[in-house]
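Reply to dn_fold:

You asked what the input looked like. This is it:
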Amino acid sequence: MKRILALTIAAMLLLGGCGVKENNDSKKPADHTEKGIQIGGVTLTIGGVLTDEKKEALGEPISTSEAPSCLYEGFDIVYEYEGFTLQTNQQSEDEIVCILTVETEKYPTAQGVKVGDTAEAVKEAYGEAEEDTKYYLTYTVDNTAITFSLSGGKVSAIEYAVPS
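and this is what came back:
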């Protein structure tokens, strides 16, 4: 079920911007200064480069898909792993990390919030959300958008992304 949700979200992100593409051929994800997210001993930074060494350390993905990017130049590539999904954008020789969605309690945020925690725990750690609904809480931290998806008042997924 979580894989279906992750693939659906990835497909929406890949295709969602196609109807509203800006006429800016040089648009790239902004540089980000946040320290990164630790996944299986690998630090992934939104806006940073996904190197061959990092890909090797992450291991073989469950699946990989690729499509022309609607938001940036080049191609968007989605890697699905056990417990998380990673979306990058291929720019020249580099793959830039654009979105990371975590669906397991194994990978908490820098403030210690993890999948399964309550919405109240998120608010205690991050304060008042920029967007606060029954279904998600969104924050911008160190030039990274962090969205906590909620189901029944608990975190069901955590998405790190280039802010829109």
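Residues 1-34 have pLDDT under 50 and may be disordered.
Hope that clears it up.
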